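3.2 Worked example (two chains)
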Amino acid sequence: MSFATPQAEPIETVPTVRAGCLDQAETFQHPLLEEPPAGGAPAVTRRTYAALEHQAAATCRTCPLLAPCLYEAVVRHDVAGYAAGTTARQRVKIRALLGISVEPENLDTLAGVVGGNRPVDHDEVIRLRAANPGESLERLAQRLGCSLSTVKRHLRRERGTTGTVGKPQRSLPPMEDVVCAARTVLHAQRGERSAAA
């Protein structure tokens, strides 16, 4: 009696999609792309900025994640610097075309920085809880600089109002609308540059 050795079936590998900006942190996190120079900046600074923006734009154009990155940067998060082929100013114009606004993240709250004697905002409690789901309510209260009962009260209120009363859910634009608005803003800006030249 002989036993046949089973043949190993080939393992299919799923290609990993990687954003090009991850390999170019020195470009995308350059201080000039984070905060573009003013019009009166020295010529060498403006040329450096233009070269960085050109390099970042080329990377974004070929990125397989461009559309979802654009959507996140325009609709969900108020990111700084250059993202998804757009500057922060361009994203403001895109949001204006779409009729949406995105509140900047309260990084102090997310990081647990506690302010002095100030009232605790309901949304602040909910955001902090969502950002730190495994943290005790006592620790959240310490971060917020309030009592445990205040945190519990806000969490109860959220449970009682979810889906009924409270802030109306903002309807998010579809991806196609965001991409179309971005093209409009970028095309108009290219036209302005051509007219100025």
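3.2.1 Second chain
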Amino acid sequence: MCGMENNGLDDTQPTLSNSQPGADESLDATRPMQANLEPMGEEVSLDATMPTPLGQKMDETMPTPGGAFEGTLGGLQDTAPTPLEGLAEGQTPPAGVKPPADRTAAVKQSPRKRRIWLLYSFLGLLALFLIGFVSAVAGYRSGIGQRQSAERTQVAQVADEQFLLGVQDLEQGQYARARQRFEYVVQLNPSYPGVTERLSEVYLALNTTATPTLVPTPTLTPTPDLRDVQELYDQGKQYLFNGDWPNAIDALLKLRKNDPNFQAIDVDGMLFLALRNRGSDKILKQADLEGGIYDLTLAGRFGPLDAEAQGLLNWTSLYITGASFWGIDWEQAVNYFSQVAPQLPNLMDGSKMTASERYRVALYEYGNALARQGHACKAVGLYQQSLAIAPNAEVQQAMDAAAKVCSGQEAGPQPTRTKKPRGTPSP
């Protein structure tokens, strides 16, 4: 009879495997009843074998006689998979199904664990860096200590060697050499044992065996007559006061030849002033550039030149260098005279051409050279600079022709200039 009741229970129990769990249904209501249940000790009524409605819970409809059937359902619940199993991490669970508390906590704690892991990684790298730094410092200090120890050992060896050699020299009577060796040992190690006593012995031996130094008999010379020297000194001073630089230089040079030690400082000072002023006069008043450079160079041997004299020496040298390119390389001539003309526009040489005039002509000639080479636009700029210094009809005509070629209005031949000898004035 029990077997018949069990068969009826299997036939009347609906299968819920294809149904989805609802929002308010428990897992006990969605699982089917196990078919091979053990026979009950008591008979199960027909009402207990009726199918359980979906809206009711299993524990409210099913009797639990003896507790055996309840234990069986508990085991089924423990082994049955939950609806949340199989969901990927970060996937939203179905509606009405709440995720487990432990999983929610794990998801919430994952960023915190990541931050903790990054913090541990950073602390580990920092610890490695500190270990490396401490190791490097320790190695450096160890190397310094070893080097200092090696130096002390070497110094001690040298001191021992020199002390032994000094003792040998002292025994052989080489007192001067022994003194040098002992003094060197004192420099290396003032507390070297025995060196002070040995050095005292050397000093004592040197004082007792010193040989007298022969002093030569001085040669008696007559007292020189300084009247001519004094006279030359007074003459040079007067010439210097009157601005007669050539005569002042002659008198002072003659004085130095007769007696180089007579008032040497004053004589050198007067020679400096005379040479400096004569050089300036040669450059600015006599157009003797080479002679002026020579005098200024000599004056520089007696003392430093002042700013005016040094500038005059520099601009004169540039003038001479620029003149050496005259008629040969107009570009270089423009380069040098562009530096001299703004500073000393009236500076001239034997040609009587001032630096400003040379700069104007060099600009004109360089413009002609560029125009002949097909650079009419560059030539126009040079012609304009030349006309800015001084107006000239020939330069104006050349600039107008170059301007037409530069603008494309005319393509005729450019003006040509024949080379003139160096120093010949040009328009």
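3.3 Remarks
The CA atoms of residues 29 and 58 lie 5 Å apart.
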